[in-house]
Design a protein that fits this description.
mainly alpha; 3 helices; elongated
Length: 95
C-alpha cells in the first residue's frame, strides 16, 4: 500500500501524463475534417475539465489529514477511471 506522499507523487505523474496526451491530441486537431472539428474541440475541452478535476483532487489530498486522505484516495481513483474512459472513448472515436 502506498503512503500518502507516494500516492500524491504517483497522482502528479498521472496528471503530467494526462497533460502530455491532451497536448498530443490538440496537435492533431488540424488533421480533423472540418465537420468533425467542433466535436473534437468539445471533447478536448471535456478532457481538460477531467484533468482539472484530477488536479483539484490532488490539491485536496495534499491538504488532507491522515484521517480523511483514504476517502480522498478513493474519490481520486474514480476521477482517474472517468478520465481514462473519456480519453479512450475520444481516441477510438477520432482514429
Amino acid at each position: 500500500m502506498l503512503t500518502k506522499d507516494e500516492y500524491i507523487a504517483e497522482m502528479k505523474t498521472r496528471l503530467d501524463a494526462w497533460s502530455a496526451e491532451i497536448d498530443k491530441l490538440q496537435e492533431k486537431a488540424h488533421e480533423v475534417k472540418e465537420d468533425a472539428k467542433v466535436k473534437y474541440e468539445e471533447q478536448l475541452v471535456a478532457l481538460r475539465e477531467k484533468r482539472a478535476e484530477g488536479e483539484k483532487k490532488l490539491d485536496e489530498m495534499q491538504a488532507a489529514t491522515e484521517s480523511n486522505w483514504e476517502q480522498l484516495k478513493v474519490e481520486t481513483e474514480h476521477v482517474w477511471e472517468a478520465f481514462k474512459d473519456s480519453f479512450n472513448t475520444f481516441k477510438s472515436h477520432f482514429k
